[in-house]
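Record filed below.
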Amino acid sequence: MPTILVIDDNLAVSTALNVLFSLHDIDMLHAESPEAGLTLLREQAVDLVIQDMNFTEDTTSGVEGEQLFTAIRAQWPDLPVILLTAWTHLEAAVNLVKAGATDYLAKPWDDRKLLATVNTLLELAETRNELDRRRSRERRSRAQLSSKYDLRSLVFEDPASERVVALACQVARSDLPVLITGPNGAGKEKIAEIIQANSSVKSGAFVTLNCGALPSELIEAELFGADAGAYTGANKAREGKFEAADGGTLFLDEIGNLPLTGQMKLLRVLETGRFERLGSNRERQVTVRVISATNADLSTMIREGSFREDLYYRLNAIELALPPLAERPGDILPLAERFRPADKPLAESARAALLRHAWPGNVRELRNVIQRAGLLAMGDRIEAADLNLPRPAPVRNTVVAEPERADIETALARAGGIIAQAAADLGMSRQALYRRMERFGIKTP
């Protein structure tokens, strides 16, 4: 049950409010002075404060109310405060609303309007409290992951990223191959590093090969090595990535670019641990944990005949799907803070611009944008203009028909009487819904 603190020296006011709130399942605490009110706030959890503007007899300046509000806001910056005011000091209340007070009501108040305002603020407070609780749970979960596993200094706060990281740590001790899927620049290699760092072969080498960065005729030589004379320019024998990774982990990025002949040899290594260098008949034996990654649709490539189905299922014993940065927005600002220069903090305008951008280049694009802005910013902060991001497309104004009585009643029933949910379903704000309900004479649930 929500709790409201009323700070007012008039006993008749507190009694009337107590009766009103008790009829609507709202607990009320009462304090007769600013000092008593601040003491109660320190001792008990309160969802909303309703405060008077004057407490000394024959005083109408509103100074005492301003001082009380300032003290509340300094210690509880997110606590909603409604001001009760007489018309003689309405200007002071309006100024406090501009300074951060939630609303003001003139004495004598209208019970319906007061309840509508209180219910709206309590819903917002409950939403904020639930968000705070969820964020607290997420922080504890991330802290547990960090204390239990080596996360290679990975920066993440979004739940979508946490799920991938937690699964990567969970499968790390297995010897099964892992396939990491996701778009370019999303951070697939970092996930591979976390798997290696928490695996049974973490003391072994971590060798990487980008199969998309080499001509197809050289990929096999890179993977398996080559004897002297195996191909034009091979003047001496060379060791391949599998030999270099023996006893450790081999990370194959862009595995979809591996040619079919290389796919066949890779499948054999995965199944037997044996291979031959190019130009050699001598069989070699290795023990390697293979992690592969791709941004390609391997299922489509299988249907088109450019990727072996048996290799796909061998690589895909465990799949980790890393979402694009746009689908894990909680990571954007923490990553930006990691990439920025220590002496160039992000201005609020820059933070807002970063959250608006779609990030088609993912983490790689974000790093490049922040590092460039850090070099080019002329001021002591990185502003939105320094990011040089494209401006969002203008929003076209559309006329939306206001909901009728039947629409509102249906939305309220569907939402179980929860105003916030009904307003969201109707595409309007809670305040607008309350006004519409009042117009139609629909009672607040």
In short: The chain has a mean pLDDT of 88. Residues 119 and 419 are 9 Å apart (CA to CA).
